[in-house]
Design goal:
single chain; alpha/beta; Arc Repressor Mutant, subunit A; Rossmann fold; 3 domains; 15% strand; disordered N terminus; metal ion binding; endonuclease; magnesium
C-alpha cells in the first residue's frame, strides 16, 4: 500500500508545543481547519481515550462533510488543498501528530476547547472580522452580546418573498413583478446587499424581528451574465453569495437571445455555468424570459411555505437563522474595511489565487 500514512517514518511522539496564539485563532466556518477540528472532536465522542485518534485517510474522508474547501485536489497545477490547514493546527498546538506508522492525529486540550466552541457556535475571540467572516460564527459572536434570541412557532409567521429594489428600477422588470403580483403570494420590496431575492419569516403579530430563511437567489440576464464575467463582478458575486451565511444559493440565469451573439464565446459561457455548479457548488437554474423567472420564484415561495408550515424557527444556535437586520448588516460590501480585509481583497484580484489560498496567506501574514 502506498498511502501517505504508511510512508511516514516511525518516531517518538512529539511533545506538545507551547500555545502559539491559538487563543485568538478562530477558523472560518466550513474551512479546512474548521472541518478538521470538528471531525476530530466528533471522533472523540465515539471512541475511548486510547483510540480517540484518526488516520489521515479517514480524517480527510470525514472532514470533507464539514468543509466547502476540497481536501483532494484534482488540478495538477494546484497542489493546495484543505489538508494544508493541518500543519497550521499542529503549529498552534491544536492538533497533536503522533509520527507512528501510520501517523495518528488527535486533539490537544487547547484544540478540544476550540473545537467545542466552534461546534456550539460561541466564541470569546476579539479578533478583527474579515470579509471571510460573513458566516455562522460571526453572527453568533454578535448575537452573544445582544439579547435577541426568540422562537417563531408553527402557524405564527408568514413566509414572504423579499425583492431587492434594483429589480424594480427598470421597465424590463415589469413583467416579472406583474406575474408575482398576479400570483397572490406575499412579497415586499427593500434593499438587499447581496442577492436579488430571498425569503423571510415574519411574525403575524409583528412582535418579533424578521428571520431570513436559508435560500437566496441571484438573477442574471444572459447579457448581464456575460458582462459580469468580463468586468469581474461574476467572481465577486459568487464569493459574496457563498459567504453570506445563507446555505442554499441559486444563480438564476435568464436567456436573452442566442448565446452565439454575446460578447463572449458560447463555449466560455457554458464553461462559466458549469464551474458555478461544480466548483462553486451553487445551484444554477435557467429560465427563458422574465415571466419564466417569475414562475420559478412563485414555485419556490410555495415550496418554502409547505416546507416550513409545521416548523418551529429559532433565532438561536440549534436551528440557525439570521435576523434580516443581521443579514443585511453583515453582507454590506460598503462597510469600512480593516487593513486585513483590504489586503485579502487585493489578493483576491490576483489571477490564480483562490479563496482557500488567500485564507492561508492572510492567516500567516495578516497585513
Amino acid at each position: 500500500n502506498s498511502s501517505d500514512e504508511e510512508q511516514e517514518p516511525a518516531e517518538t511522539v512529539k511533545k506538545p508545543r507551547k500555545n502559539v496564539a491559538s487563543k485568538d485563532y478562530l477558523p472560518e466556518f466550513r474551512s479546512g481547519a474548521y472541518a478538521l477540528l470538528i471531525t476530530l472532536l466528533k471522533n472523540e465522542d465515539e471512541q475511548d481515550e486510547i483510540n480517540n485518534y484518526m488516520l489521515k485517510s479517514q480524517l480527510i474522508k470525514e472532514a470533507q462533510k464539514h468543509s466547502d474547501a476540497q481536501f483532494v485536489s484534482h488540478d495538477p497545477k494546484n497542489h493546495y488543498t484543505a489538508w494544508n490547514s493541518m500543519s497550521n493546527l499542529i503549529k498552534k498546538n491544536l492538533v497533536l501528530k503522533e509520527n507512528k506508522l501510520p501517523a495518528r492525529y488527535r486533539l490537544t486540550d487547547t484544540g478540544r476547547e476550540l473545537a467545542k466552541r466552534l461546534w456550539h457556535g460561541s466564541s470569546d475571540s476579539n479578533e478583527n472580522e474579515t470579509i471571510f467572516d460573513l458566516d455562522k460564527e460571526t453572527f453568533d459572536k454578535k448575537r452573544k452580546n445582544q439579547n435577541t434570541l426568540f422562537t417563531l412557532l408553527p402557524g405564527s409567521y408568514d413566509i414572504i418573498l423579499f425583492i431587492d429594489n434594483c429589480e424594480t428600477n427598470a421597465k424590463k422588470q415589469d413583467l416579472l413583478i406583474d406575474e408575482i403580483k398576479k400570483s397572490g403570494i406575499k412579497h415586499e420590496f427593500g434593499k438587499l446587499h447581496v442577492g436579488d431575492f430571498t425569503w423571510i419569516a415574519r411574525s403575524k403579530n409583528a412582535s418579533q424581528t424578521d428571520l431570513v430563511l436559508d435560500y437566496i437567489v441571484e438573477r442574471k440576464r444572459m447579457d448581464d451574465f456575460c458582462s459580469s464575467i468580463i468586468d469581474g463582478r461574476y467572481k465577486e458575486q459568487k464569493f459574496r453569495l457563498k459567504k453570506s451565511g445563507i446555505r442554499h444559493s441559486v444563480y438564476l440565469i435568464e436567456d436573452y437571445g442566442s448565446m452565439k451573439h454575446m460578447s463572449l464565446p458560447e463555449k466560455s459561457l457554458v464553461q462559466a455555468d458549469v464551474n458555478t455548479q461544480i466548483i462553486d457548488k451553487l445551484v444554477v437554474h435557467h429560465s427563458t424570459d422574465p415571466k419564466d423567472s417569475a414562475y420559478y420564484l412563485i414555485h419556490m415561495s410555495k415550496f418554502l411555505m409547505e416546507k416550513f408550515k409545521n416548523r418551529k424557527l429559532y433565532d438561536a444556535n440549534q436551528t440557525y437563522l439570521m435576523t434580516f437586520k443581521e443579514f443585511n448588516e453583515f453582507s454590506n460590501k460598503n462597510k469600512p474595511l480593516s487593513v486585513k480585509e483590504m489586503f485579502a481583497k487585493c489578493l483576491m484580484k490576483i489571477q490564480g489565487l483562490s479563496q482557500e489560498k488567500v485564507l492561508a496567506i492572510i492567516d500567516l501574514y495578516p497585513t
